[in-house]
Amino acid sequence: MNKTLYVSITLVSLVMGLMMALQFRTAGRVDSGVPYDRVQLLTTELKQLEKEYANLLIEASDLEEKVAKAEKGRPEASQAVFDELVKVRQLAGMTKLEGPGVEVNLAPIRREPEQGDNLFTVRDEDLLRVVNELRASGAEALAINGQRIISTSEIRLAGSFIDINLTRISPPYSVLAIGSADQLESGLLIKGGLVDTMRDWGVSVTVTKKPSLVIPAYNHRIHLEYAKPLKEAQ
Amino acid sequence: MKLKEYQWGIILVGLVLGLMLAMQYRSSKEINETPPVARVQTLVNEINQKREERNQLQKKVNQLREKLDKKANGQSNTTREELEALRIIAGSKAVSGTGVEVSLNDSNVALPAGQDPNLYVLHDEDVLRVLNELKAAGAEAIALNGVRLIATSEIRCIGPTILTNKNKRLPAPFIITAIGNPETLENSLYMKGGVVEQLKIWGIQVQVRKKNNLEVPQYTGPTTFEYAQAPEAE
């Protein structure tokens, strides 16, 4: 009698062990597998790549046209190069640009001498944040008090003034941005967003949508000393 | 029939076994049916393919640019130099040179009891300020985790990642590559009361390494404006 008992128990344990192993493996697969938001992440990445591809296509056809033109003859070549130069100048921020956008005015309001007004003045960080927020909402060109923001522009407290492009600017500050006016405005005015916070600190912020505004060109010399174009590996 | 004791045991074991089998079947079916596993594969393939295509096109664009630049060479040196410098400012050219590599990471100090852990985490503002400081110290080209930053690049924290150039998601740790004078760049960060000192208060880990040869890739976003345009001649 005992024998049957042992045999059946052995059999059952065997099957159970196998199942446990199988279960363990599938469970492991789930863990190391894909959380749902990863799919979303990959989808965004794919979208991003598709966008870049589309942009490159535009750029490539534009360049092809210019190169084709340049091969026709000397006057055409100089025209093509000039066209390219105009385009690159625009991208680099060396030209005036016009378009719809917003004007953001910042000025300190709560000045109570006995409290010291340091906390309530507009600081370089505030401007930096406003600019960052506008960039995030798709600003294509930016300027503060007539200083165009290019890729190397700093916004920095120097002494008691703010320097942009090594040029001193003074309050009140006016930030101009070209882009979708609605998007730029809502990016700043979102509840609990930047403007809300800054108003709590006692900075007066007004955001005005403009159907058309002009952003000045970068008006300093470009001097590159360290950055050298990287030779494309053939 | 009278059931013996061991038979009861076998019935119990069989019951449990049946239950487990059913569960096993259902869970393994579920795993195969969840979208992630199947979809991720296709997505990854698609992304790789698109990336390959993009890189090809990028190469073509670079070659076309070089071709056009050569035409410019035939005309005058100043035109060629201007094109080159502006391309670097606009970010459409990959560059190399001396500079610094700054790595930023969340705090590693033990959280004091009752303190807000949020204070000890790297924020977008911190990255913004480091970037701003580098620009003020004359950085000529900057990349964050290998993504070139241009005039309109925003820095935005989304969970543990940073979002820049509208759609590029960068995971921690954050490494900023800046081309410029290594000494000046380093000193500007380590300045008394400067960014590194302030970030150290919160235990944010900042490391600055001077490098002799750094590479900063080109910007891969759009090269045309949607809203901005050259103003009508006055």
UniProtKB/TrEMBL annotation, chain A:
UniProt source species: Desulforamulus aeronauticus DSM 10349
Gene3D superfamilies (alphabetical): Protein of unknown function DUF881 (3.30.70.1880)
Coiled coil spans: 39-73
Stated name of the protein: Uncharacterized conserved protein YlxW, UPF0749 family
Domain of life the protein comes from: Bacteria
Classification via PANTHER family: UPF0749 PROTEIN RV1825, UPF0749 PROTEIN YLXX
Alphabetical keyword list: Coiled coil, Membrane, Transmembrane, Transmembrane helix
Keyword field contains Membrane: yes
Family: Belongs to the UPF0749 family.
Upper lineage: Bacteria, Bacillati, Bacillota, Clostridia, Eubacteriales
Bilayer-crossing regions: 6-24
Automatic annotation (TrEMBL), chain B:
Gene3D superfamilies: Protein of unknown function DUF881 (3.30.70.1880)
Presence of keyword Transmembrane: yes
Keywords, comma-separated and alphabetical: Coiled coil, Membrane, Transmembrane, Transmembrane helix
InterPro entries given in the database record: DUF881
Protein name per the record: Uncharacterized conserved protein YlxW, UPF0749 family
Ranges annotated as spanning the membrane: 6-23
Keyword Transmembrane helix: yes
Family, similarity comment: Belongs to the UPF0749 family.
